[in-house]
Design goal:
heterodimer, A: mainly alpha, Four Helix Bundle (Hemerythrin (Met), subunit A), 8 helices, flat, B: mainly alpha, Helix Hairpins, 3 helices, about 0% strand
Chain lengths: ~160, ~110
């Protein structure tokens, strides 16, 4: 039995434990363990860069998000809910106007970025060359998605002013 | 393509399918929104494993890594946004049990 086979078995065991365990925090720990084993597999399959991403983000950041979700519990009374709805309307009335304005600007702007050419060998072996030269639209998508994530974090950690 | 690579691909594919079954089971068997998110995360991990194995077998690890990095970025943002949604649902309904979320029912 090869090392990869052993790691795949451990990976499956960690996944099953994550699903079957009754407590949510244990499931989150199992998920982080799954990510760590997947990182080792990535390293052995010749993908160390993706492995570093997996270890730092999926084994580090995502469990923190889950633990925060599990532990965040705030009660909200019906009166506070009404006040919050009114505040939300006042905050976001300008959003449709902003969307129309940005859409109009985007239809007028034409941006072309010329990346320096790289060798076919680099395009075969170097993930950085692939990301920057072949799949730069992926990067634009990643930036957009990350911005969406930043707003997600803002929503996630936003305080309720009426609770002060 | 070497026989070992094909063998590795089919072995890993079997594990990917098993992980997907575990993830789908996790989503279907629970009424807790956080646990459903964990199921989605497991499904994404299965896809990540499949991409890495295919990249290794076809000797296109660089392309596979580029795709996996994109997948990880999307994964974390999906989890952050979904975590925010779960939190909002809890604040509004005092529960994250999907059986008790009746506000959207027509």
């Amino acid at each position: 039995m090869t090392m990869e086979m052993v790691l795949l078995l451990i990976l499956l065991a960690a996944t099953v434990w994550t699903v079957m365990t009754t407590r949510l925090l244990r499931a989150v720990i199992g998920l982080a363990l799954t990510s760590v084993i997947l990182t080792i597999l990535m390293y052995r399959f010749g993908a160390p860069l993706a492995g570093v991403f997996e270890l730092s983000v999926c084994a580090g950041l995502i469990p923190v998000i889950f633990v925060t979700t599990v532990s965040f519990t705030q009660r909200l009374t019906p009166e506070k809910l009404v006040v919050r709805k009114k505040e939300r309307m006042l905050k976001f009335w300008f959003l449709p106007v902003l969307i129309v304005l940005v859409g109009m600007v985007l239809t007028q702007v034409h941006v072309t970025i010329d990346f320096p050419p790289v060798s076919p060998e680099a395009l075969r072996t170097d993930p950085r060359a692939i990301l920057w030269n072949l799949r730069h639209l992926d990067l634009v998508g990643q930036i957009a998605v990350l911005l969406a994530g930043v707003f997600g974090v803002v929503v996630f950690f936003k305080e309720d002013p009426s609770c002060r | 393509m070497p026989v070992e690579s094909v063998s590795l691909f089919w072995t890993a594919s079997a594990f990917v399918i098993l992980m997907m079954i575990a993830g789908i089971y996790c989503i279907l068997a629970t009424f807790n929104l956080t646990r459903a998110l964990i199921g989605i995360e497991i499904l994404m991990k299965a896809v990540t494993l499949l991409l890495i194995v295919v990249g290794h077998v076809t000797q296109h690890t660089a392309l596979a890594q580029a795709l996996v990095i994109t997948l990880i970025v999307i994964e974390v943002v999906v989890m952050v946004a979904a975590g925010g949604v779960v939190l909002s649902v809890f604040r509004k309904n005092k529960t994250i049990d999907v059986r008790r979320l009746r506000n959207l029912k027509g």
